[in-house]
Specification:
The protein is mostly beta strands and 383 residues long. It contains 7 helices and 23 strands. Strands 1, 4, 5, 6, 7, 8, 9, 10, 11, 12 and 13 form an 11-stranded antiparallel beta sheet that branches. Strands 14, 15, 16, 17, 18, 19, 20, 21, 22 and 23 form a 10-stranded mixed beta sheet that branches. The radius of gyration is 23 Å and the shape is elongated. It starts with a helix and ends in a 7-residue tail after the last helix.
Length: 383
C-alpha cells in the first residue's frame, strides 16, 4: 500500500510540475520562418468549433510567393499534399524533440519538390529518413501559398512534441521575434448559476454583462465595474475576451486567464501543450451553444466534470464560486498574453440569501481523471 501511495504521489508531482517538459524548450536556436518582421493573423489555442487553432498564422501581405525558412536545425521528415486541410505542408523534425509544420504552401523548395510525383490525387504523403535532407536554421524549405483549407494567403505554422504530437504554442519558440505591447481586453462576463443550486441577480438563468471598458491599446490596464450584483449558492463564470497587438487589426485568443475571488485564485488557464485527443473539449470549456447563436466564445472560468484538458487549473471546487455569506465578494479576471501584457477587471457581488437554493460547496480534490488520465495524457494522444 505504501508503494502504491508513493507511485501516485510521483504521478501527481509530474502532472503539476511542467518544468521537466519545459526545460527542453528553446535549448536550440529558433529563427524566423520569414525574412521580414512577423505579424500574426491568428495565435495558438484560439477556440474554434470542435478544435483549438493549432498554431500561429504568419501574415504574408495577402500575397503568395514568400520564402519560408526552417526555424531551427533538424531534418525534413515528411511532405504532404492535400486538397483540403493543410494543403501543401512540410515537416521538420528538430533534435530537441519537437517538429515544426509549415502549411498552405504554394510549393516546396526544389530539392523536395523533385521528389513528388504529382498524380492529381487529393492526398499525397511522403515520410523521409532522418539522413536524407538535413537542414539548418534559416534554410529555405518552401514558398508560401494559399493551398488547402485557407481563407487567404498566409503561413500556418505549428510546433508539436515529436513523440506524442502534443501541440505546443509556437510563441514559446518564436515569441522573442514578435513585437507585442498591447494587453488583452475583456468585453463581458457571463454568470452561470448551477442548475437548482445557485442564483445570480435573483434568477437561475445564465446572463451576460458588459464591462463597458474603453478600447485602449496599452501594456497594462485595470478596470473597475461599478455595478453591484447579487448571488446565492453555486455560480460559475465565463468571459468573452480577445488579445491584440499593435499595428494589426486582427484579434487573438487569450493565452492566460485567472479568476480571483477575494484575492484567491479559483481558476486559471494557460493555453499551451494541448493533446490532440483533447481537441473536442474546446466545446465544453467554451459555451458552444451560445457560440452557435452569436458566434461569440465565452470561455468558462471553471472546469466541467470529466474534462481532460490539462491547460485548466482550479481549486477543489472546480472554479465554481459558492456564495454562502451575506457579504460583498470581490471578483477579478486577470488576462495576460505571452509577452506578459496584462489587463485586470474587478467587480463586486453581494451575497444575498435566497430561499430557492441552499449553498453547498462541492469539493473534488481528485477525480479519477485527475488521478489517472491526466498523468498519462502524453501517452494516450495520437497523431
Amino acid at each position: 500500500m505504501k508503494a502504491v501511495s508513493i507511485f501516485i504521489l510521483l504521478l501527481l508531482i509530474s502532472c503539476g510540475d511542467d518544468s521537466v517538459q519545459r526545460s527542453t524548450f528553446n535549448v536550440q536556436r529558433y529563427v524566423s520562418p520569414v525574412d521580414y518582421d512577423i505579424q500574426l493573423a491568428g495565435n495558438f489555442g484560439e477556440p474554434r468549433p470542435w478544435h483549438f487553432h493549432g498554431g500561429i498564422d504568419v501574415k504574408t501581405g495577402n500575397q503568395e510567393g514568400k520564402q519560408i525558412f526552417s526555424i531551427a536545425d533538424g531534418y525534413v521528415s515528411r511532405l504532404t499534399v492535400n486538397k483540403y486541410g493543410f494543403g501543401n505542408a512540410i515537416y521538420v523534425a528538430h533534435p530537441d524533440g519537437h517538429t515544426s509544420v509549415y502549411c498552405h504552401l504554394q510549393r516546396f523548395a526544389p530539392q523536395y519538390e523533385a521528389l513528388l510525383q504529382r498524380t492529381g490525387k487529393d492526398t499525397l504523403s511522403m515520410v523521409l529518413p532522418s539522413t536524407q535532407f538535413p537542414v539548418k536554421a534559416g534554410d529555405l524549405i518552401a514558398i508560401s501559398g494559399n493551398t488547402g483549407h485557407s481563407t487567404g494567403p498566409h503561413l500556418h505554422l505549428e510546433i508539436h512534441d515529436t513523440e506524442t504530437w502534443v501541440m505546443r504554442d509556437p510563441l514559446r519558440f518564436l515569441g522573442h521575434l514578435i513585437a507585442d505591447s498591447v494587453a488583452p481586453q475583456a468585453h463581458s462576463f457571463m454568470a452561470i448559476p448551477m442548475q437548482g443550486e445557485g442564483v445570480f441577480n435573483g434568477t437561475q438563468d445564465k446572463q451576460t454583462f458588459g464591462f463597458g471598458a474603453p478600447d485602449i491599446k496599452v501594456q497594462r490596464s485595470t478596470f473597475n465595474l461599478q455595478r453591484e450584483f447579487t448571488a446565492w449558492g453555486r455560480v460559475g463564470f465565463a468571459l468573452w475576451a480577445d488579445d491584440y497587438a499593435q499595428d494589426v487589426h486582427h484579434h487573438y485568443g487569450i493565452r492566460h486567464m485567472q479568476l480571483l475571488v477575494d484575492g484567491r485564485e479559483v481558476f486559471c488557464s494557460d493555453v499551451d501543450s494541448i493533446p490532440i485527443s483533447c481537441q473536442p473539449e474546446v466545446n465544453q470549456w467554451g459555451d458552444y451553444d451560445h457560440w452557435r447563436h452569436t458566434r461569440i466564445w465565452y470561455m468558462k472560468a471553471y472546469r466541467e466534470p470529466r474534462m481532460r484538458l490539462p491547460i485548466l487549473h482550479t481549486d477543489i471546487h472546480r472554479g465554481i464560486v459558492t456564495f454562502s455569506e451575506e457579504r460583498p465578494y470581490h471578483l477579478s479576471f486577470v488576462l495576460r498574453d505571452y509577452q506578459n501584457n496584462q489587463a485586470t477587471y474587478h467587480f463586486q457581488v453581494q451575497g444575498r440569501r435566497n430561499k430557492s437554493v441552499r449553498p453547498h460547496p462541492k469539493g473534488t480534490l481528485l477525480d479519477d481523471y485527475q488521478l489517472f488520465d491526466q498523468c498519462l495524457w502524453p501517452y494516450i494522444t495520437y497523431k
